[in-house]
Amino acid sequence: MEKTIENLKTLVRAGKGEIPAHRVVLGGTLINVMTSEVYPADVAIYGDTIVAVGDVSMHIGPETEKIDATGKYLAPGLIDGHIHSECSKLSITGYAKAVVPCGTTSMVSGLDEYISVSGLEGLREVFEEIKGVPLKVFWGAPYRTPYTVPQSTVAFNFTKEVHAEVQQWPECFGVWETVREFVTEGDDDTLGAILQADKNRLPVFGCAPMAQGKQLDGYLCGGIRLDHESYTHEEVVEKMRKGMHMLIRESSVTHFLAENIRAVTEVNPYLARRVSFCTDDVTASDVLSKGHLDNVVRLAIAAGVEPMAAIQMGTINSAEAYRIDHMVGSISPGRIADILLVDSPESFRVQAVISDGELVARDKKMIRQLTPPPRSAVLSSELKRTLTRPEDFHYRVGIQKGKAKVLSMDVKGPFVRQRRDVELRVENGVVLPDIDQDVAMVSVLERFGRNGNQSLAFCSGWHLKKGAMASSCAPDDNDIVVMGVDAADMSLAVNHLIQNGGGQVLVADGKIIDFLPLPVGGIVSDEEPEVIARRETELNKAANALGCDLPEPLMYMFFLPITSIPDYAITDVGPVDVQALDTFDPILELVED
Amino acid sequence: MEKTIENLKTLVRAGKGEIPAHRVVLGGTLINVMTSEVYPADVAIYGDTIVAVGDVSMHIGPETEKIDATGKYLAPGLIDGHIHSECSKLSITGYAKAVVPCGTTSMVSGLDEYISVSGLEGLREVFEEIKGVPLKVFWGAPYRTPYTVPQSTVAFNFTKEVHAEVQQWPECFGVWETVREFVTEGDDDTLGAILQADKNRLPVFGCAPMAQGKQLDGYLCGGIRLDHESYTHEEVVEKMRKGMHMLIRESSVTHFLAENIRAVTEVNPYLARRVSFCTDDVTASDVLSKGHLDNVVRLAIAAGVEPMAAIQMGTINSAEAYRIDHMVGSISPGRIADILLVDSPESFRVQAVISDGELVARDKKMIRQLTPPPRSAVLSSELKRTLTRPEDFHYRVGIQKGKAKVLSMDVKGPFVRQRRDVELRVENGVVLPDIDQDVAMVSVLERFGRNGNQSLAFCSGWHLKKGAMASSCAPDDNDIVVMGVDAADMSLAVNHLIQNGGGQVLVADGKIIDFLPLPVGGIVSDEEPEVIARRETELNKAANALGCDLPEPLMYMFFLPITSIPDYAITDVGPVDVQALDTFDPILELVED
Asked: Which residue among A481, B76, B381, B495 is least enclosed by CB atoms within 10 Å?
């Protein structure tokens, strides 16, 4: 309901029972996450707000809709504490269709992939789209864009001056994903955003993978409230002892729960109080097959967390971490009516979903129809880039023929690349990729018409045997990333994206093998989740056919430009040594024949 | 430290150990309220900020001051979650001298008594004074002033338009003490203040004594976050089940802990998570003899609360309730360095106090000298009121001689007055007080030169045998309250206050028995706490000598104008029926002789 004095008066009257509720949920058993109690209670809802919990008989009028919850438990709607929904390649509308039936009714997001391709104008269009879906987005303004050191190219640069404006917006609930290095190295825009947030009473969300000891202390002195990325449970424990809220990430590519949750199950059960969950990056197929936050709750229970504590991690703990517990996270009078009907706290199967006071999903299916909005030119997927030639993917060196010792970025996890020294052949002044040694070429091409940047380097771990693959969906810059063992195929892959308005493509032997268009900003699609899930599987199979045996070859590729995790990455300005916070020359030594 | 990018960079560097700490606390055992763990840990402090906890050897430089905590436990500075320090009759400087040695380093306050007598101009002067004391004040802007229905007279009316301005101030951390009736009856200023707070991400603090059931539901639909006033533990439990944070009040006149804490010790230990403490109104003598928040922590432990949970109630729980846990409430890097050295978690004797990074008190004595600031005319104690005559305290009725059946407000507790019907004599057209029946006259006189209002009514319970007593310190309006059994003495008492610039006075047989000047705004004094404590005792003894046998006769009197608690009160506009939210006529029946 719109925030006006008159509406507030109406809600108060509804709470007092002076006007009937629009809906009541009857016969259920309340999972009270505020008090850790479970007891029978009915719920009265007026508009989008819970107005009474307990005996609601006096709230029932002739027009009041009754929702039968007999035999069910009532849990608060789940909160995904940190998610780039864009990485699912689903638009907000498509994403809501996928996750709301799983019980996720709120998410905390930077919407940063939209911003990197379409700036604040595109963001406002996404805010409008959000109003039409039963999934609340608590937006954190990116601490800066791009997130990279050295600075890469995106469509819009988020600065401290931008923060001064956007932190006033009602959609803004904090500062998004403040990467450790930008704090500990004293980046002016980052610290400016933090100071602005302090002034505006907004929390600063962190991103400090592997930060411990003095780097963590320095980071915390910057005023960071929480983190969502710890690689070990010891890291979780240290961060929490030093006062942080911790989100455990269980994404489609990084399964951290089993390890991280040991902080609670093995070290100290009291830590549960400030632990919550996030999925960060998920694929449509994963959500459709396993579920979403509901699955994370189930995993935590399976790992030995008390069901009540696990449900709190999925609801109120996140709400408190983000200071949105006055709106969501519990079934209490005055909160938004996001209520799940679940089979039991132990098995936690979501059977119906009430969001913003409306029954929107039942038996894992949306009841409410969701239609994507018309897309303006702002969120179009035009890639502002001239066509490439095969030579653009030739790594040229100062010798004509011989050997090159090169540093190949060897993939060790979706975000982790380590050094691998390899010796490659040089022919006609070009260092050649090597299928036998598993060394491919990788290139990132700026695609916003800002400077035409292109980088080129070497990578390993994909086991690509032929062809190339490319994506214009590539967090966090969403420049074009292309990987391949054949320069002509790489060029064709990139050109296909440029000519077809973005997406993901696989090429071999001069032919397009498969292509998924991503017409919204070149990063997401308005297709149904089922369609994207099927196409994802097909793309992965096509990549497998080219030799790739990683679990998510395209996803592992499109994370290559992320510079926040050691040791190596690549952006449009070049291959990056993450520890040195600088670009590096992958050619270690040249020996002429 | 001032919030600038350069200072933030410096703090981050100090956290990383690149520049030495100003102070380190060595050899202590940390009470980690974030994780409920107790373990040895040192602390490094830079300026007013904790920059490292654990091994701080690399933070020690040649200039670093070392504080020895060997054999001691380190607890976070205590937070008083709801306090009108003015009611102690101590100025901010005097109050800090009293409570800081007890370990209270933060308080949440509306400073509303200052506002009622001196408006925003006086408030700004108090903010300046606060900068000079080692006691942080997290100010909540009063939801409106006056708090009364019907509206009484104060020097400054806080409206929703004022909220639009002051909620932008860095000193403002929420909306103060939003009384239930103003929400449930839909007061525009109150709801306007709440909406403004929602926009500014500020929490709304409540005041809902005895609110349960539908009134509570309606109140919560107004968006109230917490409450500090429950009369029973069942009330505590209901409020918490409905999603509120609860502060348990243990003031000098209302000892609620023993009863309220049963919500935790008998009903549900998990509730401890969102329970914290406040003292609301304390006397100087009480603080000097028993302690302050430290005493409340000890009382909770004595009542059966685990020491760790009790300490959390006095620190982090309050900080979370008020959303100031990024600043205070725990000993964590990035938080303000408020650290107590205590003997043990179980006995919780505060032996030294570090506030804002500086050692300010040891062995219950201030080390740092505190000097009150010069007072401007804004906070002067001029009572803007012409002198009274004895006739002003004659209750005139329409008969010359006979009997009057009147409603006397019978005191049942410091804030609770109930109906008592008594028959009084009427002579010469005046209803006479009656010592034998314990019926005194009570009058409230507006003192801000706004309208000259004066009310007059009857009260019981003080057992006043002769004379009168008056106070210009009288929350929340701080108009003049006078009670007496002799009209001439009442007039003399009021006139003495007017002629001497406010305070508290006792009169008998036409003579001033005792007088405590309160030269700051007519409500507080810059005298030392010890002086005020002694003078309080003397005033109470003098009141005892007049027959008063209540524990705090003057305090019970000066709470008479508070209209937020049933059943009766009196303000300058007349005696008030709190349930009816209207003035009432105390004359029930007249019988002419």
From this structure: B495
